[in-house]
Amino acid sequence: MFVVESEGVLEEDPVEEENKLAQFLDYITTHKVVMLEDLANEFGMMTKDVVDRIKRLEEQGRLLGVVDERGKYIHVTE
Hints:
Elements: H1 14-31, E1 33-35, H2 36-42, H3 47-59, E2 65-67, E3 72-75
Antiparallel strand pairs: 1-3, 2-3
């Protein structure tokens, strides 16, 4: 057995996090139709986290689209 004495938390640089978010948005808007699994692999995320991020971006009005039953996100523009 082993004991964990302390636990650290990896802090993300806010500027770096905003850059990653911009890349995430750019990837979706450029490709128009993306497989959620491919998007997760591209950004080193879990598919569930990708879906959560997309939902948050839609709530903020920064992204508009639908998730189909086959695991694709379809970006919609005006």
